[in-house]
Amino acid sequence: MDDRRRGNINMFIDRLIESIKEKNNPTVVGLDPNLESIPAHIRENAFRRHGRSLKAAGEAILEFNRKIIDAVCDIAPVVKPQLAYYEMYGIEGMKAFMETVRYAKSKGLLVIADGKRNDIGSTAEAYSHAYLGRTSLCDGYFEDVFGVDALTVNPMLGYDGIRPFLDDCRDFGKGIFILVKTSNKSSGQVQDIVTNLDASIYEILANHVNEWGKGLEGKYGYSAVGAVVGATYPNQAKKIRSIMRNAYILVPGFGAQGGTAKDVVHSFGSDGRGALVNASRSIIYAYRSEEWRKHNGEESFDTAAREAAIKMRDEINKAIKQNREVV
Amino acid sequence: MDDRRRGNINMFIDRLIESIKEKNNPTVVGLDPNLESIPAHIRENAFRRHGRSLKAAGEAILEFNRKIIDAVCDIAPVVKPQLAYYEMYGIEGMKAFMETVRYAKSKGLLVIADGKRNDIGSTAEAYSHAYLGRTSLCDGYFEDVFGVDALTVNPMLGYDGIRPFLDDCRDFGKGIFILVKTSNKSSGQVQDIVTNLDASIYEILANHVNEWGKGLEGKYGYSAVGAVVGATYPNQAKKIRSIMRNAYILVPGFGAQGGTAKDVVHSFGSDGRGALVNASRSIIYAYRSEEWRKHNGEESFDTAAREAAIKMRDEINKAIKQNREVV
After folding, report:
1. B114/B111 Cα distance (integer angstroms)
2. What DSSP character marks residue B193?
3. Strands A134-136 and B78-81
4. Under 8 Å between Cβ of A59 and A95
5. Which residues of chain B are within 8 Å of residue A146 when distances are taken between CB atoms?
6. What is the CA B169 to chain-centroid distance, rounded?
7. Is residue B270 very low, low, confident or very high in pLDDT (cuts 50, 70, 90)?
8. pLDDT at A270
9. pLDDT (tens digit, 9 = 90+) per residue, B200-227?
10. What is the dihedral of CA B29, B32, B37, B42, to 10 degrees?
């Protein structure tokens, strides 16, 4: 392990905090493209070039993503491609994912891959190589296979399955966000179960996030180990925030899933930091809203996304400010 | 949904049971290839053709997998590629995964993709399209994107995140295996937690597996919804088996992880059916054992894998038989 990178690595969590500050924007644009929802002209052009094929799908979603990235890269600090939407288009989709990551990074954006990966230790190590670390090619390494800055991770297998990601966070300056309380309706079926010690599963997980992040704090006190806590559960978010003082919270569920700016403020700390709110469909498909279509065509989908991203930024900043004044 | 396939589909679970019976073998060969562990001649040949690259890695693991598949396809009913080991090599790794799936199916094997995928409903749907169902290309579908027979799934998000997979199981004759009690050392950190109703999380999950599988039973009474229960936890396996009468259990952790034939019998029902035991490293890397290397070279790695697979089959069949005689 002597040859692993160490030392003065610019940690993801520090780069994240600095980018949020610089852009005055604690939000993430979720890149969850699907062929049905992207503008017809992009889709049809791709079909003309490659027929009705996965190759056409891959090219179309990549073109869509690039235009979205161009439209938001000066105002948003982070994009979050959701891996399922790329795997759905097979190898061609995964190529589009890889090119999206590269393009976003070239535009100064941080990239969180939303993959919710999980497995036993030896296998979690392989996932970590793929997304955060590097893959051995025997007598040499391939750096940055998918090369994202951070990955979402599912903790159901316990510490063994998390440890390899922690190693790569430390050695390569990366980050993870561990599922603690997800935004979906049935998340309580497992995560809200109350144990015989009176704590709920999500509280136990929040404590693990704390524990696992120890020693991985950056210069602002936040650790490389963050948590996923849905905007749709503000009461649980309050509890979780009070347990995890050093963990950044990635907040899905804003917008299309029903979470509002008032709901997400509970995930921020009293310093106005500590959370990162994601919206996907309500940003990237803003051009499909009735409002937009009244006055504009689908060609300006990127402008619609930019305006929606600005609106979200302003709403959330305002809610954070109001909340701090109340406190 | 009218155009979704329905009706007389040959269900995965029925094909599985028939193949196990025909080959008299309730085991799975796990295809978890990594460049360091495969025979040097395969690796070096690929490096000669493509340099020290991910392309070389992808070709090498595909060649390795094909030879393993050739060696076991007449005796084993199922192979289980572990997705992490392919994602680790990026796009080239995913190509190798796809070609491995195709090759295995062409040789009459069933394929379980071990991906432990999970997400909220709308996103779980995209994963399900990728592995079990089909992906819409607007006015048409792409069938069998990765086209496996079954997928492992993580239940931490509850029913919302499982439902899309159930739909594809029903409509396309596929199967899922839901994590209930994983084989790793720290699996108890979440899965063994005892709730205020005195049940453990793994027992609650076993009950969900039962519930979610209702209406998806095949002609032998087993449902399309199976469970993952590690060979390393025989006591928990007994309890889980008694809860889930209609669910097939995929048992990892045999061999390299320490599970023995005696440990796995508890996952089988009194009919001698109901479980499927996986071994990966102890089969595919059998050529690396001291025993094998004393008398053979690495060129015969496929013969080593075949012999190890036969030994495993016989050990497990013997243990099942002994257990039934005792009962």
Report:
1. 9
2. P
3. unpaired
4. no
5. 87, 90
6. 16
7. confident
8. 85
9. 999 999 999 999 999 999 999 999 999 9
10. 80
Task: Find out whether A298 and A39 touch, Cβ atoms under 8 Å.
Answer: yes
Q: A193 — contact with chain B (CB < 8 Å)?
A: yes
Residue A1's pLDDT band (boundaries 50, 70, 90)? very low
Integer Cα distance of B276 and A123 in angstroms:
20
Contact status, residue B75 vs residue B23, Cβ threshold 8 Å: yes
CATH architecture of the domain with range B12-111+140-151+166-326: Alpha-Beta Barrel (3.20)
Q: Using pLDDT thresholds of 50, 70 and 90, give the confidence band for residue A8.
A: low
* pLDDT (average), residues B283-310: 96
B215 vs A: CB within 8 A: no
CATH, range A12-326 = 3.20.20.70
Q: Name the residue in chain B with its Cα closest to that of A97.
A: B91
**CA angle, residues B124, B130, B136, in degrees to nearest 5:** 95
In this complex, is the C-beta atom of A44 within 8 Å of any C-beta atom belonging to chain B?
no
For residue A83, the chain B residue with the least C-alpha distance is: B127
pLDDT at B6 over 60: no
* Nearest by CB: B186 against A131, A139, A158: A158
Question: What pLDDT does residue B1 have?
Answer: 41
Quick: pLDDT tens for A65-82. 999 999 999 999 999 999
Mean pLDDT of chain B: 95
The residues spanned by each domain of chain A are: 12-326
| A78 touches A72 (CB < 8 A) | no
B16, amino acid identity: L
- Distance from the B242 Cα atom to the nearest Cα atom in chain A, whole angstroms: 21
Answer whether B184 sits within 8 Å of A161, measured CB to CB.
yes
Q: What dihedral do alpha carbons B64, B66, B71, B77 form, nearest 10°? A: 120
On chain B, the residues whose CB falls within 8 A of the CB of A201 are 190, 193, 201
pLDDT score, position A134: 97
CA-wise closest residue to A115 among A100, A131, A126: A131
Of B52, B53, B189, the CB nearest to A159: B189
- Give DSSP secondary structure letters for B197-241: TS-BHHHHHHHHHHHHTTT-B-TTS-BSEEEEE-TT-HHHHHHHH
The model's pTM: 0.97
pLDDT at A2: 42
Element (H, E) at A291: helix A290-295
